[in-house]
Each structure stands twice: as structure tokens, then as C-alpha cells.
Amino acid sequence: MKKLVVLSGSGISAESGISTFRGGGGLWNNYRVEDVASIEGWHRNPGLMLEFYNGMRADLPHHAPNLAHTLLAELEKEYAVTVITQNVDDLHERAGSSHIIHLHGEVTKVRPEDCYTDRDGYSLRYVQDIGYGSIQMGDTGGPNKRQLRPHIVWFGEAVPNISAAAREVSEADILLIIGTSLQVYPAAGLVSYAPSRCRIFVIDPGEVSAHGATHIQAPATEGMKKLIKML
Ligand code: APR
After folding, report:
1. What is the rounded radius of gyration, in angstroms, for the C-alpha atoms of the chain?
2. Atom of ligand 1 nearest to the CA of 23
3. Atom 29 in ligand 1: which residue has the minimum CA distance?
4. To the nearest whole number, what is the mean pLDDT of the chain?
5. How far does residue 14's CA lie from ligand 1's centre (Å)?
């Protein structure tokens, strides 16, 4: 089987009604990124951060995977598919994809703030799946009973899954970039790991600098239908 690696971003979930990061509208526009998506924000006001991610988690069951997520999952019949996603939602999982690397974490999971660090080798041991539930200040876990925090990679933090993701891209026969502006590193740098034989497709309704890739300029669902005809 040929290896197809997908790098997805918030644009793939746009047609499921989840707003993109930089596109305007929705959740992110009411908050400053520094307040809800940086480690400094967590140290400054953890209560606000918890409230923000509790809201995002509670909202998630109201959004279903769209055809783009589903078609990606179906590609597993013909390809060895790895989905590398910058998204913290669970729509790839719910659509049935079986090999997913979340670069920026998962909103449905939490962990004690002193666990999953460089010191413990980013061990998942104390990471808990809380589904669409919420956590509050004073909720603790792990060996040292420390405050629980969202299992999300914030600005200012390491991206522990980046090397596993780079390895996947370096073995790809086909790389599909879908719904990401590729403005955030280290995710944006993953493309450079693609071997020279790799065919690269970009699905995005916006203008992109495609660098030798085939740009399917369409929303994710329509773009996926077109891609399947081109493969
Ligand atoms: N289908 C496909 N792509 C779409 C759609 C759609 N229906 N609607 C918008 N897009 C495209 C936009 O044109 C844009 O290129 O999705 C992209 C979204 O880009 P961003 O908003 O920058 O989101 P993303 O690339 O996922 O952001 C990466 O930044 O803030 C951090 O950690 C956060 O994971 C996030 C990272």
C-alpha cells in the first residue's frame, strides 16, 4: 500500500461549523491568543483558560465530522493513511481515521500540570480522557496532586509529537495539506521532510504558496472529492 500522509488544520473542520484560527468569527475572536493559547496565559489566569477550554469541549458534541473527514477515513481502504492534525477537536477520530497524530494536543484530554513534561519524557501516563466534561480550579491529579490543565500545546511550549510527525512525512508517497495556513512552526516546517518522489496536494479555498504542490482551490469537502478523482 502507498503511504498517504495528511497534514490538517482548522480549515478541515470549518464545514463542521468550527471556526478557523485566523479566519475571523467564532470563539477565537472574542479572546486574545495570549490569554487563552499561551503558557504565559495559563500562569497569569488559569481560571480563564479552564473556562475557555471547558466551553470548547462542551461545544464539540454539537459539531459532526464532515465529508472531508469521512472521505479521509475511507482512504484507509486503499492507502496506509496517517493523519497529522493541528486540530484539537476529535472529528478525525469520530469520522473513523485510525492513525492520528495530534500535534497541538486534544481538547478532550487533561493532565496534571507537572506531568507530560520534558522531565518525564512526555509520558502519557497521567493524561486523562474526560470527553466533553469540564475541569475547575482545584481539580487535581497525578502523583503530586497538581492542578489539571487541558492537554493542549500552547504557544511557548514544546511540540513533543513533531519528530513522530516528521518521520511520517519523510516516508510519504503522497502528502495532502488540507485546511491550514501553515503559519505556525514547527508544523509548517513538516512539508520540507517530504521525499522528492512524494506527490503533494493542497486543499484550501484561499490563495496558498503551493511550492510545486497541486493546489485544489476549494473547501475541504469539495476538494476531497476532487482529490479522490486525481489520485
Ligand atoms: N476548507 C478548507 N480550508 C479552509 C476552509 C474550508 N472550508 N475554510 C478556510 N480554510 C482554510 C483557510 O483558507 C486557511 O488557509 O483553512 C486555513 C486555516 O488557517 P488558520 O486559521 O491559520 O488555522 P491553522 O492553520 O489550523 O492554524 C494552525 O495555529 O493558533 C495555532 O495552534 C493553533 O493549530 C493552530 C495553528
Report:
1. 18
2. 21
3. 184
4. 95
5. 8
CA distances from 191 to 4, 166, 167, 168, 222 (A): 13, 8, 11, 11, 23
C-alpha cell of residue 167: 518521520
Residue indicated by cell numbers 486534544: 106
Residue 47: pLDDT over 70: yes
DSSP code at position 126: T
Does residue 104 line the site of ligand 1, with CB under 6 A?
yes
- Return all residues near 219 (Cβ < 8 A) that are at least 6 apart: 14, 15, 205
Shortest-distance Cα residue to atom 15 of ligand 1: 181
Q: Report d(CA 169, CA 187) in Å as an integer.
A: 11
pTM of model > 0.70:
yes
Look at residue 98 in the predicted model and tell me its pLDDT. Answer: 98
Instruction: Kindly list the structural domains of the chain, giving each domain's residue range(s) and its CATH number in brackets, ordered by start.
Output: 1-18+65-104+159-231 (3.40.50.1220), 23-62+107-152 (3.30.1600.10)
- The grid cell for 187 is 508544523
User: Degrees (nearest 5) of the Cα angle 189, 71, 93?
Assistant: 70
Q: What is the DSSP letter of 188?
A: G
